[in-house]
Design goal:
The structure holds two protein chains of two kinds.
Chain A lengths: L2 E2 H11 L2 H7 L5 H20 L5 H18 L5 H18 L4 H18 L6 H26 L4 E2 L1 H28 L24 E3 L12 E7 L11 E7 L1 E2 L3 E3 L17 E8 L9 E2 L2 E6 L3 E3 L5 E3 L7 E8 L12 H5 L9 H10 L4 H14 L3 E2 L10 H9 L1 E2 L1 H14 L4 E8 L2 E3 L4 E5 L3 E9 L2 E5 L7 H4 L5 H21 L3 H20 L12 H26 L3 H15 L10 H6 L4 H18 L7 H16 L2
Helix pairs in contact in A: 1-7, 2-6, 3-5, 4-5, 5-6, 6-7, 7-8, 18-21, 20-21
Chain B lengths: L1 E6 L1 H20 L2 H25 L2 E6 L4 E2 L4 E9 L5 E10 L7 E9 L2 E8 L5 E12 L6 E16 L8 H7 L14 E6 L11 H7 L3 E5 L7 E4 L8 H18 L3 E5 L2 E6 L2 H12 L1 H4 L1
Parallel strand pairs in B: 3-9, 12-13
Antiparallel strand pairs in B: 1-9, 2-4, 4-7, 5-6, 5-8, 8-9, 10-11, 13-14
Helix pairs in contact in B: 1-2, 5-6
Classes of the chains: A alpha+beta, B alpha+beta.
C-alpha cells in the first residue's frame, strides 16, 4: 500500500473543509457560501495546474475582508461576522501555494471556526465533531510535515502503520490529559461577556404570539427541548406533565398574543403542600422564556429572572443554551399565579374581538346554568359535532376560526384551545391560552424525562370559582400518539439522548461552582488519606463523585502499570529472574553491555564472593537455557535461591 | 548527551491561538472553548514529551573509512539504532568534523527509524592526516514542527585521510631508468607460492578460479617474488617542488605498486621502511605520508 504525496496532501487538505462546512451551514448567510465557493473552485484548478496567484494579491483581498468585518460588525452580530470573515479568509488560504506553514494556518483557522461555532451548538454531535477535527488536524499536520521534512514522496504501509499508532498514542493521551485541564483551568464566577446570539431557530420555540396554523411545524420536529430530573423517589406519570411556557391573553380574531404583564416583585407565593424539586436542563432557546410545571413555587437559577404577574418566567439576560435551573412546586393544590386575583386584573382575560354572529350564537347556545356547566357544554360540543385532531389541511386565513367551528371541524391543539378560550370569554368566564409542552419520555437509564419539540401543545386555563383550572379541549391528542412505536431505532435514539444528557450535565454544565466543589472533594480526599487508613474509605457512604473519582484513579493507575510492566507480565519466569540478576549486578556497578555475554560480565566482577554466586546462577541458567531444557519448578526455585544469596551479599 | 529545544514560528502561532481561545473561554464561560483549549494545551504538553521520547534511546555507531584520500570519494558507515517500543520520526543527523574544520558537516535525513538502520555517508575529505568526527547532532521537528528538539552526542571518531593520489608523469621512465621494467604481461610469474585475498585492481589473471570454485571467495594467486620488481620511494628525491605534490605522487606510486602486487618501501627523513607487499604495508606507508609533519 502506498500513496503519492501530492494526491495525499491535496485530499487531506480539501477533506478538512468538511469540518467548518458541517458546523457553519445553518449559521452563515447564503451569499457567504457563494463567495466561498467562488474562491475555492479556482483553487482546485490551480492545484491541478500547479500555478498560484501571487501572495500580495491574496493578502490584499484578505485585508479587504478584514476591513469589511470592522465596518459591519456590531455588538449583537460580532460572532456571526467573525465567523464569516474567518470562513472567507480560509477560502483565500486555499488559493495560495501551500507550504508547511500554510497547512498549519489553514488547520488552525478551521479549528478557530469550530471554536466560534461552539456558541451555536449544545448537542453532543458538535462535541464529537470538535474531537474528530482535533484528531484529523493532528494527523494531517504530521503527514504534511513528514512528507516535507522527511523528503518523502511515497508512504509505505509500514510507515503508515507506525504513524497511525505512534501519533495515535499522542492524540489519545492528549484526550485523557485534556480532562485534567478541563477540570482545572481557571474559571470566573460570572463570565465577563455573554456573546448574544440573536439568531432564531427556524422551526422551534415560542414567540409572543401564535397565529392559527403556525404550530403544526413544531409538532413535527423531534429536537430535544428539555430534560428534567425530579428529586429522588419521585416519579410522576410522564403523560400527566404539563410544562407551561407562555400565556396568551389577547385575541384579535386571528392571532393570540401576550400583552406585557406586570413584573412581580416577590416570586414566592403561598401554596400549600410539600414542595417537590425538579432540575431543568433547557436545551434550546424559547425566546428566553423558562418552561415550568403547574403549581410552581419558586425557580432558582444562576442568572437573573423576571417573574410576571401571569406566572410566566423569563430570563433577564440573553442565555447561552443549555441552561440549568431548579423548580420547586407542589403536587396538589390549585394553580394560582397572582396572590389575590383582583377584579381589575381578571378583566383582560375577558377581552373578545369583533366576532361573527355565528360564533356569538354558538356561545349563547352553549351557556349553562353555571360556569362549570358552560365549560361542560363547550367540551361536549366538540365531541358531539365530531371534531377531529389533525396537523394537515388546517383552516387558514381571515375566517380560520369560523371555518374551524362550523365547516372543517378539524384542527390542532391551538384551534381547540383558541376556540374554547373564546367561547368561555363570550360567556363571561375569564380564560387564556397556554403555550407549552405536554408529556415527556421517561429515560429509565438516565432517570430523566425528555421533552421534544413535537410535544408542543396548547391548552386553556379558565378562572372558575376562585382558581385557575386547566382545560385541555383537544380530542384525540393523546400521549400514546406521541410515543412512537418502540423499535431498535427508537431505543438507539434514546441511548443517544442519554449520552447527550450526560454530555450536558458533565461538560456543558461544568462551571465555577462545580469546579469549586470538585476541588473541595479533591482536597478532602487528599487530607482524608493522611488522617485515616485507606480501609476506612467507604464507597457506599460517599458521593457519586467520590466513586467516579476513585474509578478514574484506578483506571489511570492500571493503565500506568500496564504500560510500564505490561511486557514483563507475559514473560517466562526465567527471563524475569535473569533480568533481576542483571539488575542486581547493575546496582553494584556492573552494567551489561548489549553484546556482552553473561559469563563475560561475570569475568569483570572483582569481588570473589560475588563472582562465585553469580557464576552459580549463570551456570544453572545457561545449562538449561542453551540446551533447551525446560525450566521446571525445581530449577526456578534454585535460581531464585541463587538470586537471593546474591542479594543478601552486602 | 545534551537535549535542547528551539521553538519555531509555527509553535509561536499555535501558542498565541491557544492563549486567545483560553482567554475567550474564561471570559465567556463557554465550556466548549474550555474543551478546545484543553485539547490544545494537552497536545502542546505531550508533544514535548513525545519529542523527547522520539530522541530517547538513539544510538549512533560511526564506522570510519578504512581508506580515505583527500578530494576522493570517501565512505563512512553509520549504524543508527533505536531502543524502546516507539519508533523515531523525521531525524536529521549532522555529523560534525573536528573543530578545526568548523563548517564541515555531513547531513543525513532519516524520516523513519524502527530498531536499526545502516547507511553509508559519502564525502570528499579536504584535510590530510588525522580527521575527527567530534559530534553527532540529531534533531527532529516531531511531532508537528512547533519546535525542533536537538540531541547532541559527543564522540571521538578519528580516522586518517591519506594524501590525494596524483598521477606522476615521470613514473614509468623513472623506473625504467633503473632497469626495473613494469611488466605489462604477468605470464612470467610462474612459481606459485600460495593464495591471498583478492582486492579490486589486481589483474583478473591472478584470480584463482579453482579457489573460487571451492570456497566461492575470490583469491589471488601469489608467485615467487624473485622476478618481481621492487618499488622503493625516497620522498625527498622525487623531482617535484611542492611537498604536497611529492606526497601525492608517492601515494600514487604506492597504490599502483600495491595494485600490481609488487613489494614497496619508503625512505622518508632518514626513516626506512623496507619493501614488502600487502595491505598492512600499504596502510603503514600511507599513514606515514598522511602524518608527514608528525614525523619530525
Amino acid at each position: 500500500m502506498s500513496f503519492k504525496r501530492k494526491t495525499l496532501e491535496i485530499s487531506i487538505l480539501y477533506g478538512s473543509l468538511l469540518f467548518p462546512l458541517s458546523v457553519l451551514f445553518n449559521i452563515l448567510a447564503r451569499e457567504i457560501y457563494l463567495v466561498f465557493f467562488f474562491l475555492l473552485i479556482p483553487s482546485l484548478l490551480f492545484e491541478k495546474k500547479n500555478w498560484h496567484p501571487p501572495r500580495f494579491l491574496i493578502n490584499l483581498l484578505g485585508l479587504s475582508f478584514i476591513l469589511i468585518f470592522f465596518l459591519t460588525v456590531s455588538l449583537t452580530n460580532f460572532l456571526e461576522k467573525a465567523l464569516e470573515t474567518l470562513f472567507l479568509l480560509l477560502s483565500l488560504k486555499f488559493l495560495e501555494n501551500k507550504t508547511l506553514r500554510d497547512y498549519l494556518q489553514i488547520y488552525l483557522l478551521e479549528f478557530l471556526i469550530l471554536c466560534g461555532a461552539s456558541f451555536y451548538y449544545a448537542e453532543l454531535s458538535f462535541f464529537l465533531i470538535l474531537a474528530l477535527s482535533f484528531i484529523y488536524f493532528g494527523y494531517a499536520l504530521f503527514l504534511h510535515l513528514y512528507m516535507e521534512e522527511g523528503e518523502v514522496s511515497i508512504l509505505t504501509g509500514e510507515e503508515i502503520k507506525a504513524i497511525i499508532f505512534s501519533f495515535g498514542a499522542l492524540l489519545f493521551l492528549s484526550f485523557i490529559l485534556s480532562i485534567v485541564f478541563f477540570l482545572g483551568l481557571p474559571r470566573l464566577q460570572v463570565p465577563l461577556f455573554t456573546l448574544g446570539i440573536e439568531k432564531e431557530r427556524a422551526k422551534t420555540g415560542f414567540t409572543d404570539k401564535i397565529r392559527l396554523g403556525s404550530f403544526s411545524e413544531i409538532q413535527e420536529s423531534s429536537a430535544p427541548v428539555l430534560r428534567i430530573i425530579f428529586e429522588k423517589n419521585y416519579k410522576p406519570d410522564p403523560k400527566e406533565l404539563y410544562f407551561k411556557v407562555i400565556a396568551f391573553d389577547y385575541f384579535d380574531g386571528r392571532t393570540w398574543k401576550r400583552t406585557v404583564s406586570k413584573e412581580e416583585e416577590n416570586p414566592l407565593r403561598a401554596q400549600k403542600g410539600p414542595a417537590k424539586k425538579a432540575t431543568f436542563y433547557l436545551l434550546s432557546g424559547q425566546q428566553d422564556y423558562l418552561p415550568f410545571l403547574e403549581r410552581k413555587l419558586y425557580i432558582k437559577a444562576s442568572f437573573t429572572l423576571r417573574h410576571y404577574q401571569d406566572g410566566i418566567v423569563k430570563s433577564a439576560e440573553p442565555l447561552n443554551y443549555p441552561v440549568k435551573y431548579e423548580l420547586y412546586f407542589t403536587e396538589t393544590g390549585s394553580e394560582v399565579f397572582y396572590k389575590q386575583e383582583p377584579e381589575a386584573f381578571l378583566v383582560k382575560y375577558l377581552q373578545v374581538p369583533e366576532v361573527s354572529e355565528n360564533i356569538k350564537k354558538l356561545a349563547e347556545k352553549l351557556k349553562g346554568k353555571n360556569d362549570r356547566e358552560t365549560l361542560e357544554n363547550i367540551l361536549n360540543y366538540f365531541k358531539k359535532e365530531g371534531f377531529q385532531y389533525s396537523l394537515s389541511s388546517l383552516p387558514l386565513g381571515e375566517k380560520a376560526l369560523e371555518n374551524f367551528l362550523f365547516k372543517v371541524k378539524r384542527g390542532n391543539c391551538e384551534y381547540f384551545a383558541g376556540a374554547t378560550a373564546l367561547l368561555l370569554r363570550l360567556n363571561g368566564i375569564p380564560s387564556r391560552v397556554i403555550g407549552g409542552y405536554r408529556g415527556a419520555i421517561y429515560n429509565p437509564q438516565g432517570g430523566y424525562y425528555l421533552v421534544e419539540e413535537r410535544f408542543a401543545h396548547s391548552w386553556v386555563e379558565a378562572y372558575l370559582q376562585g382558581s385557575w383550572v386547566r382545560i385541555d379541549p383537544t380530542p384525540g391528542f393523546s400521549y400514546e400518539m406521541l410515543i412512537r412505536k418502540k423499535g431498535i431505532l427508537e431505543t438507539l435514539r434514546l441511548y443517544y439522548d442519554l449520552l447527550n444528557h450526560y454530555y450536558t450535565k458533565l461538560i456543558l454544565d461544568y462551571n465555577y461552582q462545580k469546579q469549586k466543589k470538585f476541588y473541595e472533594i479533591l482536597r478532602e480526599k487528599l487530607t482524608l488519606k493522611e488522617e485515616k487508613p485507606f480501609r476506612d474509605f467507604n464507597f457506599k457512604s460517599g458521593l457519586k463523585e467520590k466513586k467516579l473519582l476513585a474509578i478514574a484513579f484506578l483506571i489511570l493507575l492500571g493503565l500506568f502499570f500496564f504500560l510500564k510492566y505490561g511486557r514483563t507480565l507475559f514473560e517466562p519466569k526465567e527471563k524475569r529472574l535473569l533480568r533481576a540478576f542483571f539488575k542486581e549486578l547493575k546496582k553494584r556497578g556492573y552494567v551489561k553491555r548489549e553484546n556482552e555475554g553473561i559469563f563475560e560480565l561475570i569475568e569483570k566482577l572483582r569481588d570473589e564472593a560475588l563472582k562465585n554466586r553469580a557464576l552459580k546462577f549463570a551456570k544453572i541458567y545457561s545449562e538449561y537455557y542453551y540446551k533447551d531444557k525446560p525450566f521446571d519448578k525445581m530449577v526456578i526455585s534454585e535460581l531464585k535461591r541463587c538470586l537471593k544469596e546474591l542479594r543478601n551479599l552486602s | 548527551m545534551r537535549l535542547s529545544l528551539k521553538i519555531s514560528k509555527a509553535g509561536i502561532f499555535y501558542t498565541l491561538i491557544t492563549i486567545f481561545i483560553g482567554i475567550s473561554a474564561v471570559n465567556t464561560g463557554n465550556n466548549l472553548l474550555y474543551v478546545a483549549v484543553s485539547f490544545l494545551l494537552s497536545f502542546m504538553w505531550l508533544s514535548g514529551v513525545f519529542a523527547k521520547l522520539n530522541l530517547k534511546g538513539l544510538e549512533v555507531n560511526v564506522i570510519p573509512p578504512r581508506e580515505g584520500y583527500v578530494r576522493r570519494r570517501t565512505f563512512i558507515k553509520v549504524i543508527l539504532r533505536k531502543r524502546g517500543p516507539l519508533p523515531s520520526f523525521l531525524l536529521t543527523l549532522k555529523f560534525k568534523f573536528s573543530p578545526s574544520e568548523k563548517n564541515k558537516e555531513l547531513i543525513k535525513k532519516v524520516p523513519f527509524l524502527k530498531e536499526q538502520r545502516e547507511f553509508i555517508l559519502e564525502f570528499f575529505p579536504e584535510k590530510r592526516g588525522e580527521n575527527q568526527i567530534y559530534e553527532v547532532e540529531i534533531s527532529s521537528p516531531f511531532p508537528v514542527s512547533f519546535f525542533r528538539r536537538f540531541l547532541r552526542l559527543r564522540m571521538k571518531i578519528s580516522f586518517i585521510v591519506f594524501p590525494e593520489p596524483k598521477r606522476c608523469q615521470f613514473f614509468s621512465e623513472d623506473l625504467q631508468r633503473k632497469g626495473e621494467k613494469l611488466p605489462r604481461n604477468l605470464e612470467g610469474f610462474s612459481e606459485f607460492q600460495g593464495l591471498s585475498d583478492y582486492r579490486a585492481g589486481i589483474p583478473k589473471k591472478l584470480i584463482s578460479w579453482k579457489a573460487f570454485a571451492k570456497w566461492e571467495v575470490l583469491k589471488r594467486k601469489l608467485f615467487s617474488e624473485e622476478e618481481s620488481p621492487v618499488l622503493m620511494i625516497e620522498l625527498q628525491k622525487l623531482p617535484l617542488q611542492d611537498l604536497e605534490d611529492k606526497l601525492s605522487c608517492a601515494t600514487y606510486l604506492i597504490l599502483k605498486a600495491y595494485e600490481r602486487g609488487y613489494p614497496f618501501g619508503l625512505k622518508i627523513d632518514g626513516k626506512v621502511i623496507p619493501p614488502k607487499s600487502g595491505e598492512a604495508q600499504k596502510l603503514k606507508i600511507l599513514t606515514l605520508l598522511a602524518k608527514y609533519e608528525e614525523l619530525k
